[in-house]
């Protein structure tokens, strides 16, 4: 029972597209400026911009794939998980860049590096403006879609990177020490790694088919058992298919006098309205039925 699907990422595709165009264009500018100025902070931020481009592009492709009907007959849940895999790609890219920037920054300690602060400041300010625009575009969608959240966190990390680039440029101008460039590059790398770990935990919770965040399996079972006509509940499973699409399966044991149609309708409404489960597969069993509760997993 229950086939009311709604894909959260698809309705935010235009926000992803606009952000993708803005950041892809600026990435080229920042990369050239970073190579010209010799700033590791600027190059690390350009690397994060590259990750943004890949992440936003993957999220765009994933939201497109997720809404396509399956014609192979092999994907009974469609391609909704494409969005989750796009978020996993974002995690891998963010962690890889964080490690690279940190290693490169440490290797520069003790080296005399000439850094042109003018390009750093100009590009840092432009990057900050573009990142803020992208953040405003993606903010609402990040609360609903895992792939949009991955893109949002990437852009958030880049915003911090732009602030770091500006701070590094000012500090180098004031003190004359290029060590500020290295220190801020390491700080950016750590910030990105922490964000990647946070997103990774959410991704693996979905891939591991854990009970959706904010939902209590015991409470759901208790609510189902309290439905008029239901004597027992077993084989309850709750998980997230993709952002905004929670799924449940359960066996409901009913009394002899219970109307199975009414039980199904009440259970479906309860799961949808009280617990946010859009798709529920419910099996109604008479009390004298045997065998369904013998499965050990």
From TrEMBL:
SUPFAM superfamilies: Cation efflux protein cytoplasmic domain-like (SSF160240), Cation efflux protein transmembrane domain-like (SSF161111). The chain crosses the membrane at residues 16-36, 42-63, 84-103, 115-138, 150-173, 179-198. It is a multi-pass membrane protein. Keywords: Ion transport, Membrane, Transmembrane, Transmembrane helix, Transport. It holds the Pfam family Cation_efflux. Residues 213-286 form the Cation efflux protein cytoplasmic domain. Its main location: membrane. InterPro entries: Cation_efflux, Cation_efflux_CTD, Cation_efflux_CTD_sf, Cation_efflux_TM, Cation_efflux_TMD_sf, CDF/SLC30A. GO terms for cellular component: plasma membrane. It is found in: Membrane. Residues 17-207 form the Cation efflux protein transmembrane domain. One of its GO terms (molecular function) is zinc ion transmembrane transporter activity. Belongs to the cation diffusion facilitator (CDF) transporter (TC 2.A.4) family. SLC30A subfamily. NCBIfam families: CDF. PANTHER family: CATION EFFLUX PROTEIN/ ZINC TRANSPORTER, RE54080P-RELATED. This is Cobalt-zinc-cadmium efflux system protein.
């Amino acid at each position: 029972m229950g086939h009311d699907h709604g894909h959260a990422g698809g309705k935010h595709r235009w926000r992803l597209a606009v952000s993708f165009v803005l950041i892809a264009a600026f990435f080229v500018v920042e990369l050239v400026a970073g190579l010209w100025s010799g700033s590791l902070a600027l190059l690390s931020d350009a690397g994060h911009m590259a990750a943004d481009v890949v992440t936003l592009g993957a999220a765009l492709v994933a939201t497109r794939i997720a809404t396509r009907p399956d014609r192979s007959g092999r994907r009974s849940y469609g391609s909704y998980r494409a969005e989750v895999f796009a978020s996993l790609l974002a995690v891998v890219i963010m962690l890889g860049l964080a490690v690279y920037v940190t290693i490169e920054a440490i290797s520069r300690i003790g080296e005399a590096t000439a850094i042109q602060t003018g390009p750093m400041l100009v590009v840092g300010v432009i990057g900050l403006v573009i990142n803020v625009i992208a953040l405003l575009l993606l903010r609402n969608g990040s609360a609903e879609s895992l792939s949009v959240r991955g893109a949002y966190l990437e852009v958030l990390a880049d915003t911090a990177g732009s602030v770091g680039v500006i701070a590094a440029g000012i500090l180098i101008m004031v003190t004359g020490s290029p060590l500020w460039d290295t220190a801020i590059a390491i700080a950016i790398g750590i910030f990105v790694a922490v964000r990647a770990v946070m997103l990774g935990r959410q991704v693996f919770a979905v891939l591991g088919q854990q009970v959706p965040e904010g939902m209590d399996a015991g409470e759901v079972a208790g609510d189902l058992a309290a439905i008029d006509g239901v004597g027992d509940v077993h084989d309850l499973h709750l998980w997230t298919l993709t952002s905004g699409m929670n799924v449940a399966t359960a066996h409901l044991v009913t009394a002899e006098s219970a109307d199975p149609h009414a039980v199904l309708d009440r259970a479906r409404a309860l799961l949808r309205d009280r617990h946010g489960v859009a798709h529920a597969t419910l099996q109604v069993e008479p009390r004298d039925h045997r065998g369904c509760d013998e499965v050990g997993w």
